[in-house]
């Protein structure tokens, strides 16, 4: 959660709280920290990261196909 918070903080600040999304900046090493942490969480919870990603992609593709929008609205 700490790594996610670091990214959220950078994203929120650089995009001026969503007012200027084109200014969004997040450091590559922070994304790496978050990915590493997520893989560690997957390992601890016995979750297959590839299966979880594939499921998310299926949901994303279905949503875009059905609604034309990438966001879930939630
Ligand atoms: Mg970090």
Could you walk me through the main structural features you see in this protein, from its secondary elements to its overall organization?
With 74 residues, this protein is mostly helical. It has one domain. Helices cover 68% and strands 0% of the residues. It has helices spanning 2-14, 28-45, 49-67. The longest helix has 19 residues, at 49-67.
List the helices and strands and how they pair.
Blueprint: H1 2-14, H2 28-45, H3 49-67
Helix pairs in contact: 1-2
Residues 3, 6, 30, 33 line the site of magnesium ion (MG).
What best-fitting shape do the alpha-carbon axes yield? flat
Question: What is the mean pLDDT?
Answer: 93
- What structural category do the secondary elements indicate? mainly alpha
Low-confidence stretches: none
* Helix-strand pattern: HHH
Q: Please indicate the percent range of residues in DSSP E strands (runs of 2 or more).
A: under 5%
Number of strands: 0
Helices, by number, come to 3
Fraction of residues in helix: 55-70%
Q: Can you tell me the number of structural domains?
A: 1
List keywords for this structure.
74 residues, mainly alpha, binds magnesium ion
Give a concise summary.
68% of the residues lie in helices and 0% in strands. It has 74 residues and is an all-alpha fold.
